[in-house]
Amino acid sequence: MRFDNSYARLPERFYARQHPTPVAVPGLVAVNAALAAEMGLDPAELSRPEWVEVFAGNRIPKGADPLAQAYAGHQFGGWVPQLGDGRAILLGEILGPDGRRWDIQLKGAGRTPFSRMGDGRAWLGPVLREYLASEAMAALGVPTTRALAAVTTGEPVWREEGRLPGAVLCRVASSHIRVGTFQYFAARGDTEALRLLTDMAIARHHPGAEGALGLLQAAVAAQARLVAQWMALGFIHGVMNTDNAHVGGLTIDYGPCAFMDVFHPDRVFSSIDSYGRYAWSNQPQIAVWNMAQLASCLLPLIDPDETRAVALATEAVHAFAGIYQAEWLARFGAKIGLAAARAEDEDLIGGLLDLMAAEEADFTRAFRGLAEGTARDEFVAGAAFDAWAGGWQARLAQEPGGMEGAEARMAAANPAVIPRNHRVQEAITAAVAGDFAPFHRLHAALADPFGAPPDSPFRTAPLADQVVRRTFCGT
Ligand SMILES: Nc1ncnc2c1ncn2[C@@H]1O[C@H](COP(=O)(O)OP(=O)(O)OP(=O)(O)O)[C@@H](O)[C@H]1O
């Protein structure tokens, strides 16, 4: 790895220099060969003992400059002036063969000055969950942080469940700059730091954006498109706090997330979100709220005249709705086979979603079934689906390429395989018992979400008692 650590060159108030805490017995779980190749790294080399030591935090590679990033954030509406990487350590950044910059971060690598009461560690379950979910997202074409490697530590981690095996995830991403990073400096009135952060965020995520207003507009657009993609996959992020809102529009933090099984737009509760604040249907408005927080941080850089700055920032945040709506329509239009969905198609799409919610349809199978002729089976009352399908067929008849074209569009927009919670859970349970084969099989299936053969076991819906009505947490 050839490091070029732009974040470590920022002034020291951006981070705390911190080495990982070595672990007892590093053990390789996985190196992501496809991602390694994308990054210009040799997966065989990364699987050697020296690199397993690096991923465990026992060895610092040449050129790394390890640090924990400072940030703040609104968590469930409450302001926390100081968060920061409490268990993640940024080793540094490398440049890929295509010029892309990658943060190399170890999540679960030990305590940092931002750990508060935490142990700085992660256990194997959430490490595998994040590995699988983030890689599934990438394969689904959704911007996300990635998983380069996972290792076990040979040390126990204590959680509510008791003694659990410790692990470290090597997470890579085009950056880890969050809305909360801006909030950290805005709360301290540190305009100079905001300026440096703005320049870095533009360079790393939105080249071409001009100044703070340009950054805000680009971040809003990226966030709007991201959330529309989540919605179209039945994905619930579960913890849309501002420290998990990425300025480049990546999905970040796979703690209490879930891909829904049965479609429940409003009734999703996680163990840390008992009021359903971050339910599927609330996600767009929460994203707007998060973008408004970014806007408020950037005000002093947008215009010296505060009234003017507020007007410009407000307009930029309000642009979310139009961008989101257009993306939503294109995504859901494609899901029902439309080449170019029109505003009036919203009723047709909304009709299907209402029916899916009322009839307890499995989100993924119902949509995939539209292309494969099996959608009707996902509805308790098939006749209700037939009534909707009449209008749908009539609309498809107006599309170029007829039903064949529509089927191809639907097959490309509706995955057959998503990381269903019961499958992830199975993989974790086996891994804890020392068998990593189910994890690797699931990872392989998730790498090709649209191409799974009809008899793939990963397409099946869970049994009733395994259905995700709740999102999951277990950090
Ligand atoms: N076991 C732990 N020890 C120390 N700090 C922790 C621990 N778990 C979480 N934190 C910190 O608490 C904050 C919120 O935790 P959360 O679970 O949302 O984040 P995370 O999953 O650790 O990190 P990220 O957002 O980078 O994916 C973060 O600042 C995180 O670093």
From TrEMBL:
Question: What are the names of the required cofactors?
Answer: Mg(2+); Mn(2+)
Entry keyword annotation includes ATP-binding:
yes
Q: Which residues form the active site?
A: D243
Q: Which UniProt keywords apply?
A: ATP-binding, Magnesium, Manganese, Metal-binding, Nucleotide-binding, Nucleotidyltransferase, Transferase
- Which residues fall in a coiled-coil region? none
Under Pfam families, the record lists: SelO
Write down what this protein is called: Protein nucleotidyltransferase YdiU
Please state the gene responsible for encoding this protein: ydiU
UniProt binding sites for Mg(2+): N244, D253
Chain sites annotated for binding ATP = G84, G86, R87, K107, D119, G120, R171, R178, D253
Q: Which organism is it from?
A: Ruixingdingia sedimenti
Give the family, as the similarity comment puts it.
Belongs to the SELO family.
Recorded superkingdom: Bacteria
- Provide the function of this protein: Nucleotidyltransferase involved in the post-translational modification of proteins. It can catalyze the addition of adenosine monophosphate (AMP) or uridine monophosphate (UMP) to a protein, resulting in modifications known as AMPylation and UMPylation.
